[in-house]
Hints:
Blueprint lengths: L1 H14 L4 H43 L6 H26 L1
Amino acid sequence: MAKAQTEATDTIETTGTEPQTEIGWLQALEDKVHAAAGSIRDLREENATLRRRVEELEERLAAPPVAGAADRWIEEREEIRGRVERLVEHLEGLL
């Protein structure tokens, strides 16, 4: 190990710069940090979008029902009841 360290030191002293292999790990680390920062930024944006969507949906749930919706349900229920009664009468007539 001492020999390898001495050779690396000799290379630095003779060239005046670090060998590419000595700082290659730093570039890889920098790339990973940039990728992680990008992922965090994307996740924050997605989180903000989802929070806004949840707020919108909660507001819709809290809002009173559309005027006349209950009346339409009652009318539809009565229409269905009438049809079923007519079908029962028809079936009873066949017996």
